[in-house]
Amino acid sequence: QVQVVESGGGLVQPGGSLRLSCAASGSDFSIYVMGWFRRAPGKQRELVAAITGGGSTNYADSVKGRFTISRDNGKKTVWLQMNSLKPEDTAVYYCHAQDSRNIALGYWGQGTQVTVSS
User: Fold this and answer.
1) In angstroms, what CA-CA distances link 57 with 10, 53, 69?
2) What values do phi and psi take at 113, rounded to 5?
3) Are the CB atoms for 75 and 21 separated by under 8 Å?
4) How remote is the C-alpha of 69 from its chain's centroid?
5) CA–CA dist 87, 25 (Å, integer)
6) What single string gives the DSSP state of each residue in 16-73?
7) Which residues 6+ apart lie within 8 Å of 14 measured at CB?
8) Binning pLDDT at 50, 70 and 90, where does residue 27 land?
């Protein structure tokens, strides 16, 4: 199994940037599809971006062109680079590791707060 811990959240002005990090521990990191989810107050949790062990990516339409997900399997780390931030990006961001071999095995981080406000 794997444990994941997010960091890098904070307060930023509209148009600014943040980079979130998700550090994993455990074995076989490369077999996990890694995703960033977010949940805004009163809103449903949504998938922001995902990346496979081989580097294939997928993004929510709302963040395409602004956010970039990346990973380093050697460092067991995944990042979410967030540029041109908007107030509607304000949410708690969660890192998730999904075992590509077993749909029943998924692991969540504790979340990190991102607030976009002037």
Assistant:
1) 25, 10, 7
2) -80, 130
3) no
4) 7
5) 32
6) --EEEEEEEEES-GGGEEEEEEEE-TTS--EEEEEE-TT--EEE-TTTTTTEEEEEET
7) 85, 86, 87, 116, 117, 118
8) confident
* Residues in the chain, total: 118
Q: How many of the other CB atoms lie within 10 Å of CB of 7?
A: 14
The SS3 assignment for 89 reads helix
Q: How many CA atoms lie within 13 A of 96 on its CB side?
A: 18
Strand partners, 38: 46, 93
CA distance 89 to 60: 12
Query: pLDDT per residue over 43-55, tens digit each?
Result: 999 999 999 999 9
Per residue in 74-101, pLDDT tens? 999 999 999 999 999 999 999 999 999 9
Quick one: what percent of the chain has pLDDT higher than 90? 97
Helix (H, G, I), strand (E, B) or coil at 85: coil
Single-letter amino acid code for the residue at 39: R
